[in-house]
Design a protein that fits this description.
This protein is mostly helical. It contains four helices and two strands. The chain has a two-stranded antiparallel ribbon. Strand 1 and strand 2 form a beta hairpin. Helix 1 runs antiparallel to helix 2. The longest helix has 16 residues. It starts with 6 loop residues before the first strand and ends with a helix. The mean pLDDT is about 75.
């Protein structure tokens, strides 16, 4: 759970969640924790990388907050631009790039 952004401790046979990721959509807490714990139990013998990818997919699916409207999109993009490495995932893969008009024409008008 901590790898997914939760603050949690394990006590006897249950987890106590004391903090949740700010990106988690309202109303999806129980579902997300249930999916994460089931995935962890199911993938416990997989390589760590595959476990992380499955957990990231769950967080992305359940973290979608349904931003709509031009102002909401602008606010989200402004918040993203304030990040240190807003153009890359934590693994260094690009999530956005700048493409010139010429490049767009080259790619879409062969």
């Amino acid at each position: 759970l901590e790898a997914a952004g939760f603050e949690a401790t394990i006590e006897e046979n249950h987890a106590v969640v004391s903090g949740i990721p700010g990106t988690l959509a309202a109303g999806s807490l129980e579902k997300t924790i249930h999916e994460l714990t089931n995935t962890f139990l199911e993938t416990g013998k997989l390589p760590v990388r595959q476990q992380q990818e499955r957990m990231a997919a769950i967080m992305a699916r359940n973290g979608a907050c349904g931003i709509t409207g031009e102002e909401g999109i602008r606010q989200t993009l402004n918040e993203l631009s304030e990040c240190d490495n807003c153009n890359y995932t934590p693994n260094g893969k690009p999530i956005s790039i700048c493409i010139t008009d010429e490049e767009l024409h080259r790619r879409f008008n062969p």
